[in-house]
Design goal:
The chain is an alpha/beta fold. It has ten helices and nine strands. It has a seven-stranded mixed β-sheet, with helices on both faces. Strands 7-8 form a two-stranded antiparallel ribbon. The two termini are 34 Å apart. The N terminus is likely disordered.
């Protein structure tokens, strides 16, 4: 698949759009979330996701990965406890009957933990995904192993569980931009710091969760934006810069992120940053 630049987006109304959690969620859904589409496609193709697949998506956010699986015929359940605003957008995408429109897919969305998605007597899931990449902030894998361990009993024996991590910094142009978050957040005691992804990060998480690693792959996921403003909005929507905003202020973070994007600015005003992500397929035991 050839990645496509996101289209221009109009600024949100209001004096401080990026401070608004609803606006952040929309920036995520409209600008940033699609950057990992090549990854989702590669995983679904490799695991032959289609009719008959029962998929449990952890940290499903605004639901794009679930929608892609549903378009292949999968029955999907999404779980998210971190962003009610993103989950609201996922409901609009996957459960449009709530807005008097016909449903697009067999889908269920749960605000909470994997255990909250359990339904007595329901068939086991045959695929679990955790698509939020780890490996760019120190400690960003904390809690993932326990989340996977909680989800594993809901899946059949030997079911694939997919974890995702950033590739090495020399193959991820966005790494340099993410370091801005670390630099600005340093005054905040205990804030996570940027670090390069390690080769065995995903395997270590899988083993702590009681899963058996069973293959991996790498996928190119360039981050492309219509202009610098769209790039700043998209990157800030990830939440990786929240500590920096708290430690300094929104204007300074916007300014320094924009400056860090200059090496990736093309002559036509677009921003292009090649990246590589790694995925691990582990199995329940």
């Amino acid at each position: 698949m050839t990645p496509t630049l996101v289209r221009q987006h109009l600024p949100h109304a209001g004096p401080s759009p990026r401070a608004d959690r609803g606006a952040r969620a929309r920036d995520w859904a409209e600008i940033q979330e699609r950057m990992l589409v090549p990854l989702y496609e590669a995983v679904y193709e490799r695991l032959e996701v289609g009719g008959g697949t029962r998929l449990l998506g952890l940290g499903c956010g605004a639901g794009l990965a679930l929608l892609m699986a549903a378009s292949r015929g999968a029955a999907v359940t999404g779980v998210d406890s971190s962003s009610p605003e993103r989950l609201t957008l996922a409901r609009e995408r996957l459960l449009p009957q709530a807005w008097d429109r016909p449903p697009r897919a067999e889908a269920r969305l749960v605000a909470g933990s994997p255990g909250d998605a359990a339904v007595a007597g329901a068939p086991a899931y045959d695929l679990v995904t955790a698509f939020e990449p780890i490996g760019c902030v120190a400690g960003d894998s904390e809690g993932l192993a326990s989340l996977l361990a909680e989800a594993a009993p809901l899946a059949g024996r030997g079911a694939p569980v997919v974890l995702v991590g950033w590739g090495p910094p020399e193959r991820c142009s966005t790494s340099a931009v993410l370091r801005v978050a670390t630099k600005l957040a340093d005054p905040l005691h205990g804030a996570g710091s940027w670090r390069a992804a390690c080769r065995d990060d995903l395997e270590e998480v899988a083993q702590r969760a009681g899963l058996r690693p069973d293959g991996s792959g790498r996928v190119a996921c360039p981050f492309g934006y219509a202009d610098v403003d769209s790039a700043v909005r998209g990157l800030l929507s990830t939440g990786l810069f929240d500590a920096a905003v708290e430690a300094t202020d929104q204007a300074q973070v916007d300014k320094e992120v924009a400056e860090a994007l200059h090496p990736h600015l093309r002559r036509d005003g677009t921003v292009w940053m090649p990246n590589v992500f790694r995925y691990l397929i582990a199995r329940t035991v």
